[in-house]
Design brief:
Layout: H1 10-36, H2 44-60, H3 62-80, H4 84-108, H5 116-136, H6 150-155, E1 159-161, H7 163-168, H8 171-176, E2 183-187, H9 188-198, H10 203-220, E3 226-230, H11 240-251, E4 254-257, H12 260-268, E5 273-275, H13 276-282, E6 292-296, E7 299-300, E8 307-310, E9 316-320, E10 329-340, E11 343-350
Parallel strand pairs: 1-2, 1-4, 2-3, 4-5, 9-11
Antiparallel strand pairs: 6-10, 7-8, 8-9, 10-11
């Protein structure tokens, strides 16, 4: 469940409490001074002004507390998504920095003017430099494994699901075949869009939205993947596609979609895209020239004399001189193939026994 936005998280409560306590102390100090100078009469006024400062601090601290809480949550999410080897490298760098600080303190302790704040400055500089060095070069450390290479990190990255990919429904079959790794993230605004589509007055859109919700239910039942609803606020964008790209960049996630335009926009902004249509096209069987196919001609083609047939995977086959054989099963020999943006097309010609009689 998402927390109440008006209350915020622990960081927001701490900020508001600190600000309230600070203003309460200021109110008590001011009241004490005024009481000592005779401006106020009665010790109860000290309590009243302290309470007034406390209440003012709590009220005016809402906005800065919310801002700080959002930044703290973002930092926590980034740290939570960091690979384990990076965390170990950072801890190693911090340990080395503290050891060097202790050694330098012993050496510099006798230097005139060397005080505790110089020691803190040296410790801070060493912590930053050694931690950054060890994290940047973590692959050479002995505790890293082969899983820390680029391919392993890419495969284990979270996958951000687009509305079109969820409605498509093929994600469940891909997950069952163990071709999906990492967590599957469903943003709350994508879930809201699915609900709006499922409640649409148009029957076709309503059917598509309900299929998307059923797909999410089936994904949640798959033991091989972990599906999570994320509630990250993306105030910088209003359109769903823009929010998806920004969220993918913020979380370092891959984007799963079937939308060609979204694919191109996300790719230009450095987001790795997994397009289900490209996957389906890549796993289709490849037929070489000379191979024979058993086909059923379904309709005439665009050009004169052409007939169209389809393979089981939906690949369109253009057959020469088969326009008059609509509804019949024929044997055709593959002559060539063409890869397009919408998929692969195969060109074939009829075998001799199925070819129409050329004699008048």
């Amino acid at each position: 469940m998402s927390r109440d936005a008006s209350r915020g998280g622990p960081a927001a409560l701490l900020v508001r409490a600190a600000l309230a306590a600070g203003l309460g102390a200021v109110g008590a100090i001011v009241a004490s001074r005024l009481l000592a100078n005779g401006v106020l009469t009665g010790p109860n006024n000290v309590l009243y002004l302290a309470l007034l400062g406390l209440l003012l601090g709590w009220l005016i601290g809402a906005r800065p507390a919310k801002w700080i809480d959002a930044r703290v949550s973002r930092i926590a999410e980034r740290l939570g998504s960091a690979p384990p080897e990076a965390v170990l490298a950072a801890l190693t760098g911090a340990t080395v920095a503290l050891v060097l600080t202790v050694l330098l303190n012993n050496v510099l302790a006798s230097v005139p003017g060397f005080t505790w704040y110089w020691s803190l400055l040296i410790a801070g500089l060493l912590m930053i430099s050694t931690t950054a060095f060890f994290v940047a070069n973590r692959r050479v450390l002995p505790f890293t494994t082969e899983q820390a290479d680029d391919a392993g990190e890419t495969a284990g990255r979270p996958k951000l699901l687009d509305t079109s990919a969820i409605i498509d429904g093929r994600l469940v079959d891909v997950a069952k075949a163990n071709f999906l790794e990492g967590r599957l993230l469903v943003p709350d605004f994508v879930l809201g869009e699915l609900q709006r589509i499922a409640d649409d007055a148009d029957a076709l859109r309503r059917k598509r939205g309900r299929r998307g919700l059923e797909t999410l239910e089936r994904l949640a039942e798959q033991p091989s993947v972990e599906t999570e609803i994320v509630r990250d606020a993306v105030p910088e964008a209003s359109a769903v596609d823009d929010k998806l790209v920004l969220l993918a960049r913020r979380r370092g996630a891959d984007l799963v979609t079937t939308d060609f335009n979204l694919h191109q926009v996300a790719k230009l902004q450095g987001v790795r895209v997994l397009n289900l249509n490209q996957l389906a096209s890549a796993v289709k069987a490849t037929y070489l020239p000379g191979e024979t196919l058993s086909l059923s001609v379904v309709r005439p083609g665009r050009e004169a004399g052409q007939g169209l047939a389809y393979l089981d995977d939906g690949t369109m086959v253009v057959i020469e001189d088969a326009a008059d054989l609509v509804g019949e099963n024929v044997e055709a020999t593959v002559t060539s193939s063409l890869q397009t943006n919408v998929g692969r097309m195969i060109f074939a010609r009829l075998d001799a026994e199925d070819a129409p009689d050329a004699s008048p």
